[in-house]
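hey m, so remember when u said the tokens were messed up on ur end? i reran from scratch. heres the input so u can diff it against urs
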Amino acid sequence: NYIYIYIYSFFTFLSSKIMLVQAGRQISGLPKSKKTVKPKMTVNSSVKMSSSSIHSSTKSQIKSTVEISKYIDVANNLADAASKITLKYFRTKFDVEIKSDCSPVTIADRETEIAMRELLAVDCPGHSVFGEEHGIQFGSGEGSQFTWVLDPIDGTKSFITGKPLFGTLIALLHNGRPILGVIDQPYTRERWIGADGYPSTLNGQSISTRACSSLSHAYLYATTPHMFEGANETAFNRLRDSVRIPMYGCDCYAYGLLASGMCDLVAEADLKPYDYMALVPIIKGAGGVITDWEGKDLVWNPKRPTPGLSAKETAAELKAGWPGEVLAAGNAELHAKALAKLAFKL
């Protein structure tokens, strides 16, 4: 009898544990009978936008497909670190300096980029890093095939005047091609993430561009009309005069709006890789198209500078390889019509 009671009690206990586990899965939204498997994101395959932390070094041989998932957490950690600093300074009093190119820079810009570089030195020690405020640091070994491109505060003019349309831009390039991008607006708590070949998200929710195939119905953004001059100003004016409504003043936020289906075109000039590389996977992953004004892909694979050059000559050599004009559209048809209207040749 004691043996029977013991066996009965054991199976009763076991049954209650199973019921609790099943109930927990129902509450958490997990399936009853399947284990949760964290998918692996690789270029040109379909998976969810999630990952585990990266602490392993770059493998000695890069496979034909680049695993992106292990860098998703890195990019999110960079954005989190950046937001703590930018929010600390936003709408407070601080000094504003003017750089040699007449653009403003603040302590927030510099501190934010340093914080992101320090994290990358730990998580991705062999990778190259290029940032607006502290230039380029070339990687080593196989890791040099990867380049992180950082803009700590895209839209510094908006930032220093208290307008919450600035953003932190984070991109990862593999052999010059952007495979991962983040736009983070910390004040409004909006974060766009795109990875090559996967649906783009805003705060974890999938997004898509909207259907607009006519220039006469299109809403166009550019940061400022003053960014255009000479031939690109003439070209932009043709496009501007063809759309329903041209608007200005959003910086990187405009590209997030386009990816979210809120506007149709963004056309800009006088840009650097840190201004647009993060935008490429986000726009493409939402169904849009983004190129230079000749329809060429936005790629940039920086090479080590020629020895013996002056700082000015080194900067010119580095700059020679990147596009300066960018056109983003919600779909291929509208993009083709906008390109035709620009009719731009370098």
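this time it looks ok to me. Residues 233 and 253 are 22 Å apart (CA to CA). if urs says something different then somethings off w ur setup not the seq
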